[in-house]
Specification:
Blueprint: H1 25-47, E1 52-53, E2 58-59, H2 96-105, H3 107-116, H4 147-168, E3 178-179, H5 180-197, H6 200-207, H7 217-230, H8 233-255, E4 263-265
Antiparallel strand pairs: 1-2, 3-4
Helix pairs in contact: 1-3, 2-4, 4-5, 5-8, 6-7
The protein binds FE2/S2 (inorganic) cluster.
FE2/S2 (inorganic) cluster binds next to α3, α4 and α6.
């Protein structure tokens, strides 16, 4: 039996789409930006260098938490859980699979990469090139339903990122101080929290499975806050990719002594 636009009962239209606008633009831009980001993140996580600026106590989010014996001792705020890592293995191996799972199963990114990479479909009102469609009801896409659990892990990881920012306010030899890097890390972590809280699963956890809101005023209030953020989820998804990259890049430049951190206090 044929599927998609060729399924029985669908109008028989020979054209792939009747859209006359430039519908290819959005998936192409998404493809380029996501591919570029993944390439950068891959190279940085396997590089195993320039991830920690000691005097400023800046740890790159791509290396946090740094819990292997290969990490600089001052960067091991959570202790040493593993021995030395061989080349090319990311130091943040305990969190990266969960972060990757969280982003990959995010409802917004799903929509984006289904369109940009799998063309399933490439845009609204444009027939996909695939003959079959089983949605997310079979392996491997049924795994997308694990998103709510990845959300829990992402919440814990955001706490770790927050701890890194707190440490950045305590540079070596001082009880308090901050510089431009601290501000960049702070903005990044605030936006990461906003992205995590604006998640569709979070919205459901807070306001779902209730018969009425009148008996749950606190949850109703929180649901209202999350719903407002949820409306910005797409923007937060892209903004946090940018701030993660910029934070890592800034730490890499300072840690490699390519630039000096602009200090405001200490
Ligand atoms: Fe995007 Fe949950 S829907 S993070």
């Amino acid at each position: 039996m044929k599927n998609g636009t060729a399924a029985p009962g669908r109008a028989s239209i020979p054209e792939r789409t009747l859209r006359t606008d430039n519908w290819r633009k959005a998936p192409i831009i998404t493809f380029i930006l996501l591919s570029g980001w993944v390439l950068y993140a891959f190279l940085r996580t396997v590089w195993q260098a320039a991830y920690f600026a000691g005097p400023e106590h800046y740890l790159s989010p791509f290396y946090s938490p740094c819990v292997t014996a290969s990490c600089t001792p001052e960067a091991r705020d959570f202790g040493t859980w593993f021995g030395h890592f061989p080349a090319l293995i990311p130091f943040a191996i305990v969190t990266l699979p969960f972060l990757l799972g969280f982003r990959l199963t995010c409802y917004y990114y799903r929509r984006s990469y289904y369109r940009a990479f799998w063309q399933s479909p490439p845009a609204c009102g444009v027939a996909e090139p695939h003959a079959g469609y089983s949605g997310e009801t079979k392996f491997p896409l049924i795994v997308q339903n694990l998103h709510r659990y990845f959300w829990l892990a992402a919440g814990l990881i955001s706490i770790i990122n927050t701890w890194d920012v707190v440490q950045a306010f305590r540079p070596a030899g001082h009880s308090f101080g901050f510089g431009l890097g601290t501000m960049i890390m702070l903005i990044n972590v605030v936006l990461l929290w906003a992205y995590t809280i604006s998640c569709h699963s979070c919205r459901h956890i807070i306001g779902g499975k209730l018969r009425n809101f009148s008996r749950h005023p606190f949850r109703y209030k929180m649901w209202g806050v999350v719903s407002k953020l949820n409306a910005k989820h797409m923007e937060l998804a892209w903004t946090t990719l940018a701030t993660l990259l910029l934070t890592d890049l800034y730490v890499a430049l300072v840690a490699s002594n390519t630039i000096s951190d602009l200090r405001f206090i200490n």
